[in-house]
Design a protein that fits this description.
The complex is a heterodimer of chains A (about 210) and B (about 250).
Chain A: H1 7-15, H2 19-41, H3 44-60, H4 71-90, H5 101-114, H6 122-134, H7 138-150, H8 154-161, H9 165-183, E1 191-192, H10 193-200, E2 204-205
Antiparallel strand pairs in A: 1-2
Helix pairs in contact in A: 1-2, 2-3, 2-4, 2-7, 3-4, 4-8, 5-9, 6-9, 6-10, 7-9, 8-9
Chain B: H1 3-13, H2 18-23, H3 33-94, H4 103-116, H5 136-156, E1 164-166, H6 172-176, H7 183-188, H8 190-197, E2 206-208, H9 211-223, H10 227-240, H11 244-249
Antiparallel strand pairs in B: 1-2
Classes of the chains: A mainly alpha (about 210), B mainly alpha (about 250).
């Protein structure tokens, strides 16, 4: 993540009328926010709508903004709320969207067995990880994506998602276990072929 | 969750896990440039109203302050214009002063009045200065008190033929004279200065000799051979009554 120390200052400058400050802020966070929403909604159109809605709320709240917490916490808390609202509007409870991990694991395992050589391809690896993420329960996926995209601590993630730190930690633990299982990393027993397949050109022990 | 899960979690939290590196491959997804433009435009548009509002806010209080200052100043000016003539009129009833005359003329006319006045009534030589604030009744009381004191003093010291009291504001030239009385006269003037001491410092009276009397005194000094003292007194006289000698010398001025 880019340096976030001055994110709050940029937001305050924007509130005072500095449009360039907002542009910098937007450039810093647009990717992470977009991917967070994309992972959560798994729908490009819905993601774009929510993305715009989140930034609209940021713009609207500029005069009330106080640099008490990280800007990322502020931004992703809005995104979290927007996503919850989106699910309510769509009539789908976020918590009811977890697919069976076993099904996903089996699908991935089958694909691994069919073509082990192609696992080296980074594009395919990314695709598999994306698929594995999509099959995670939404709360677990959210914690994982927030941790990856924002660099926030588990405490901060718990705060912005409205749960305790231990709950966030538990969700992340489950998410990691399921992702490893889905990607066959558990089966590899310590040899992280994922890295090699991801195009790093190296094979490293995971332990 | 078992111990292995906890260990993997710790490794993951240190960003040393393969999953994090694998996830980095997914970070290429970004919003479209069209979406970028739409949001940035929205952000810029939102600022359009902001400066106007701020400007109104910042413009507001100086404008109010300016209006308030204008009202206060106007009121003060009106009060001064309306009330000052009334105050002067009130003072004029007690001690009318010729407004058209120059300070020197005023002092000279007083001196003439001194000479015409009877020695038994030295109070005629006293021009009661205009009082700034007190009511006419209090001025009258003070005046009568001063007159009584003067009469008593005149009985004790008949040599004193009279003196002119002047106020700084009415006779500026007289005010410029730093020292107006000789030590011997200071005691005699004590009754005159007593009421003045009760007044504000700005209105403190300065006692000045009548011009004619002063000139006679200078002549006496000169006749007695005290040329330097006479010159000194003459200089003081000139400071106290600038232009008086020239006026006396000029037949047109009479």
């Amino acid at each position: 993540m880019p340096a976030q120390d001055d994110d709050g200052a940029l937001m305050l400058r924007y509130a005072q009328g500095d449009a360039r400050a907002f542009t910098r802020l937007y450039e810093r966070h647009k990717g992470a926010l977009f991917r967070y929403l994309l992972r959560q909604t798994r729908n490009q159109a819905a993601t774009e709508d929510l993305f715009q809605e989140v930034w609209s709320r940021v713009i609207a709240s500029r005069e009330r903004y106080q640099s008490l917490a990280k800007f990322s916490t502020f931004l992703f808390a809005i995104a979290h709320n927007c996503f919850i609202d989106h699910c309510r509007r769509a009539g789908t409870a976020p918590t009811a969207r977890a697919d069976s991990l076993d099904d996903a694991g089996e699908a991935l395992a089958d694909s691994e067995h069919r073509s082990p050589e192609r696992q080296a391809e980074s594009a395919q690896m990314a695709s598999r990880l994306r698929a594995a993420l999509e099959r995670l329960p939404v709360e677990q996926r959210e914690v994982f994506v927030l941790y990856e995209e924002t660099g926030l601590s588990l405490e901060e993630i718990g705060e912005l998602t409205g749960v305790g730190t231990e709950t966030a930690k538990s969700r992340l633990r489950y998410a990691l276990a399921k992702l490893r299982q889905s990607l066959g990393d558990a089966r590899a027993t310590g040899t992280v072929t994922v890295l090699h397949h991801a195009g790093r050109g190296e094979s490293r022990s995971a332990k | 969750m078992n111990v292995t899960d906890d260990r993997e979690l710790e490794r993951y939290l240190k960003r040393q896990d393969a999953l994090s590196r694998a996830y980095a491959e997914l970070k290429a997804e970004r919003p479209s440039p069209v979406l970028d433009q739409a949001i940035l435009k929205q952000a810029h548009d939102a600022l359009r109203d902001l400066p106007r509002a701020r400007r109104m806010h910042f413009r507001g209080w100086p404008a109010l302050a300016a209006i308030a200052a204008t009202v206060v100043l106007s009121f003060a000016l009106v009060m001064r214009v309306v009330l000052e003539p009334e105050m002067q009129r009130d003072h004029g009833q007690v001690a009318p002063a010729p407004a058209a005359q120059s300070p020197g003329d005023a002092a000279a006319s007083k001196a003439v009045a001194d000479q015409n006045a009877s020695p038994a009534e030295p109070s005629a030589a006293i021009a009661t200065p205009p009082m700034p604030a007190p009511a006419p009744s209090s001025i009258e009381e003070r005046r009568s008190k001063i007159e009584a004191e003067i009469r008593a003093t005149a009985i004790q010291a008949p040599a004193v033929t009279g003196s002119v009291t002047a106020v700084e504001s009415d006779v500026p030239a007289a005010a410029r004279a730093e020292e107006t009385l000789e030590p011997s006269r200071a005691d005699e003037a004590a009754p005159f200065s007593a009421p003045a001491a009760a007044e504000p410092p700005a209105k403190k009276k300065q006692q000045v000799k009548a011009p004619r009397e002063w000139l006679q005194e200078i002549e006496r000094l000169r006749a007695a051979g005290e040329i330097e003292a006479a010159d000194r007194e003459l200089e003081r006289f000139r400071q106290a009554y600038p232009g008086y000698l020239e006026q006396q010398a000029s037949p047109a001025a009479r």
